[in-house]
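Q: Could you predict the 3D structure of Beta-xylosidase?
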Amino acid sequence: MALNTLSPISAQQFPKKKATPPEIKVSNNNTSAYLFTYFTGNKKEEEQIRFAISNDGYNFRALNDNNAVISSEKISETGGVRDPHILRGADGKTFYMVVTDMVSAKGWDSNRAMVLLKSKDLVNWTSSIVNIQKKFPGNEDLLRVWAPQTIYDAKAKKYMIYWSMQNGKNPDIIYYAYANATFTDLESAPKQLFFSPTNGACIDGDIIFKDGEYHLFFKTEGQGAGIKIATSDKLTEGYVLSDTYVQQTKEAVEGASVFKLNNTDEYILMYDVYMKGKYQFTKTKDLEHFTIIDQEVTMNFHPRHGTVLPITAEEAARLEIKWGNSEDIIRSANAKEIKKINTKIDVENKSVYFSVKPNTNLKAFNPSFITYPGIQVQPNTPQNFSSGPVQYTISIKGQTSQTWTVYAAENHNAILGGLYADPDIMYSEKTKKFYIYPTSDGFDGWSGTYFKAFSSSDLVCWKDEGVILDLNKDVSWANRNAWAPCITEKKIGNSYKYYYYFCAAQKIGVAVSDNPTGPFVDSGKALIDKRPAGAKGGQEIDPDVFTDPQTGKNYLYWGNSYLACAELNDDMISIKEETIKIMTPDKSFREGVTVFYRNGTYYFLWSEDDTRSENYKVRYGFSNSPLGPIEIPEKNLVIAKDKEAGILGTGHNSVIQVPGKDEWYIVYHRFNYPKGNTMGESAGYNREVCIDKMEFNTDGSIKPTIPTHKGIKPVKL
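A: Sure. Here are the predicted structure tokens for Beta-xylosidase:
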């Protein structure tokens, strides 16, 4: 089968028509749940079919502890499979699945086959391999067979399989062929279904029938990359391109898949944001306009290129009986009061500890465990956790019931409800509120690109104020590594200005706003973009802005492996170059300086060690001038890990004084609890923000702060 290359087709060449809906006689299944089938990564052990289920299409839980439900070794030529697509048959009770037969470690141009699978119950599957190169002549230069999918052709009364292939130096094109009656082979040679008239290649096709038309979602490659749609009134021909990208992100995406929500007229378009290791979910009614719903979606796994199938309660129960377990039900607790990233589970002793948000009523608290058909959790009403743990019994049909001990306690640390680091804190005279400005964390290699702000009236309850600066949208001179911001408030006449200093691409910029929550406008260039004279090594990062209460002068401090300082000009967006000074305190200095003034003394705090180390800690020195020299006390530890409490990597802090009081607090980040101690170096970009009280001795020296889970009590202004 030689490649058949056609000339590019314009949309005007095909008039739009409406097709008659396919006469697919599917019994009334009363679908009420969803099955998500996916794989997880590019290692051979990750290139396996996995299942997850959901009650609502938004919140998915992995089955079988996120392990494979079908062995790739048993069904494939290569030992690995990817890109699973699942379909309910026209009879309503038979299921079909097709997957790419491929191990990526052997190369992206290494596979020639797909695997066809069939099941009557979603649990037991038969399979067969179709090697395109071996089966069909004329494919000597075939390089790859990718992402097969299946749809029922009511006119032909057959199952059509469609996928992308690349032959030689030609671009990837989407082909189709019909499966035989037993769904074990292709009955005819592949034919071209669609190619991209505006891009070099097209892959990852997904066809949805709606309003009399077949909508083909696919990924373009070559000149530009993303998800586009072509439509036709016929399943196998005449697709007209709508030359618009429909993904709602600037990141690289692939594996688009659409499914209809049960009992609604709404659809979900989801796709793999593969360079960021995440999925994006969008909602639509017309398959033309898409709204991001990521904030509504939860998953306890990280899928790659998968598909979702609506299923019945009976089918969901069958899956849970086969692959469900009590541990996952315990982990599924979704009460809004629970700090999801701080739940600690002891599987061996069957106990779980929920850290709950401030002001939770522990005398009547319900963890709200997610259950599926075939599962019962008792008790299922609010319980009194104020005097101790509560016993819960989980019963899964066909399995022995298990009892778990469940604890719940109000802990104020961590404070922001997500992964954040490098916090800078400010009290605003304009709003009479506190604000925290952190690094957005949880991205591999500190690769975040946006900044958020959080507000509070009491240092305990914090409100997410949203993104205040996005490098990709708001900054022209850098688009990566959004790190370690700081801010200052200035009253000018009767109004206020906010000067926000931030790191991007290992440079320091400044943005300005009229409000502490933005929007902030970047100055248009980096403020600090080169190493100061006298500094050896290090990076131009981690700014701190300080106004000397004695003189009113404004200073910017920065540096990694060195500490530099310069006086800011009155415009606050430029420095007096002649004032740049190196003032590194000692060899313990790594980064993250913060400066404050108390009782005639200037305090300099900094972080020692590496943020990926559990021994990351804060030390200090003091001076009688904002320009040093810095004197270092013999005992100068401010805060360090408490390994017994599971608190590790405590560093990169800022300090806040309660207005009008000699009451001080240290704001810092730590490794995420409880996962941090198992994550290795990646704990260094999965951090969370905490607050504890800072106290001083009578001679002005700082007492070591013990980091806590409990945190602080609400502050009264």
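Q: Anything worth pointing out?
A: The first helix runs from residue 72 to 75.
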